Automatic annotation (TrEMBL):
Domain of life where this protein originates: Bacteria
Domain HTH luxR-type, residue spans: 252-317
Protein name from the UniProt record: Regulatory LuxR family protein
InterPro entries for the chain: GAF-like_dom_sf (IPR029016), Sig_transdc_resp-reg_C-effctor (IPR016032), Tscrpt_reg_LuxR_C (IPR000792), WH-like_DNA-bd_sf (IPR036388)
GO molecular function list: DNA binding
Pfam families registered for this protein in UniProt: GerE
Keyword Aminoacyl-tRNA synthetase among record annotations: no
GO biological processes: regulation of DNA-templated transcription
PROSITE patterns with a match to the protein in the record: HTH_LUXR_1, HTH_LUXR_2
Annotated TM spans: none
Keywords: DNA-binding, Transcription, Transcription regulation
Length: 323
């Protein structure tokens, strides 16, 4: 049996360096570092998706990935509940894991397995790491894997979003959406309760994803009658940003330029290219009332033509976004 001669502190520092050199998110680079001190023949990362409550195989080496049913099967074992309670790796085969071992490890010739729950430093669970070997693991393997598991937990963190921070001020609260309408928190951002709880936001986000726009910026009136500055940015969501998505971000605001809500509606129609009669019909107003609103808007924004008014409205996000 191979013996491990590196102590836990040294391994933790070594794995951290390997993980960072690999790019801060590459599982194979991190495991290459781990393999130098732990003899293993195969590994698999299984991510827990908090948006769906299910487990998904995301990265593997040494054998084929297990399917979704197998990932969920392990989560139903007493061994999984024991690992979650103790936050310590569980060896296989052991009582309660024999059937799983025979079905998913033994056919590949593995004699030993080890499964570690992955928790970030702040205590959030992100998934599992399965290890397999044709020989019995050295007795310190569990302790060493437990030591590096908080770093490896970043590999299975499906809440991460890959976004371009340019144009998104730090005081915006945000929520990420994929095309299926699944909501996710955006790391480093306060979650927007207003966007999270808005029933129509998922469909609005999907329409944005399907458009050719890279960003969208405007004003949003929530159901409570409060105005928000709203921005949408294209983003990759899920594991390493693999899914098409969008980050929707907002902050409460007063209407700019002392505009009224009705003036914002008229301005939005002007920017869409509507004539005064068309605006009047859409907003159920008289043409004279629309003309009066426009006179006020021109004065407040300091514009002397509809073209300049439209350019300013689009550039500064003064149009209403109908979520």
């Amino acid at each position: 049996m191979a013996e491990i001669t590196l102590d836990v502190c040294q391994l933790q520092a070594f794995a951290e360096v390997g993980y960072q050199v690999a790019g801060g998110g590459d599982a194979h680079g991190a495991m290459a570092a781990l393999r130098r001190v732990i003899p293993l023949d195969a590994y698999e990362f299984v991510a827990f998706d908090p948006a769906t409550g299910r487990h998904h195989s995301v990265v593997s080496d040494g054998h084929r990935r297990i399917d979704r049913d197998a990932a969920e099967e392990y989560a139903g074992l007493d061994a999984y509940r024991r690992a979650m309670a103790t936050r310590a790796p569980v060896s296989m085969p052991e009582p309660d894991t024999e059937r799983y071992f025979r079905r998913h490890l033994a056919p590949y010739g593995w004699r030993a397995g080890l499964t570690a729950p992955l928790f970030l430093r702040e205590g959030r669970y992100t998934g599992l790491l399965h290890l397999a070997s044709r020989e019995a693991f050295p007795h310190l393997t569990g302790a060493l894997v437990a030591a590096v598991s908080p770093m490896l937990a970043h590999v299975t963190d499906l809440t991460r979003c890959v976004i371009d921070p340019v144009g998104l001020p730090p005081d915006f609260r945000a929520v990420a959406f994929d095309r299926l309408g699944t909501r996710r928190e955006v790391p480093g951002r306060e979650t927007s309760a207003a966007l999270w709880d808005e029933p129509a936001m998922a469909a609005y986000a999907r329409a944005f994803i399907d458009s050719r726009e890279l960003t969208r910026h405007g004003l949003w009136l929530d159901d409570g009658g409060h105005w928000h500055e709203l921005r949408l940015l294209r983003a990759g969501v899920g594991f390493q940003g693999a899914l098409q998505g969008v980050v929707a971000a907002e902050r409460p605001c007063a209407l700019p330029y002392e505009l009224t809500g009705r003036e914002v509606d008229v301005l939005t129609r002007v920017a869409a290219g509507d004539s005064n009669p068309q605006i009047a019909a859409a907003l159920v107003l008289s043409v004279r009332t629309v003309t009066t609103h426009l006179e006020h808007i021109f004065a407040k924004l300091g514009c002397d033509s509809r073209t300049r008014l439209t350019t300013k409205a689009l550039a500064e996000g003064l149009c209403r976004l109908d979520v």
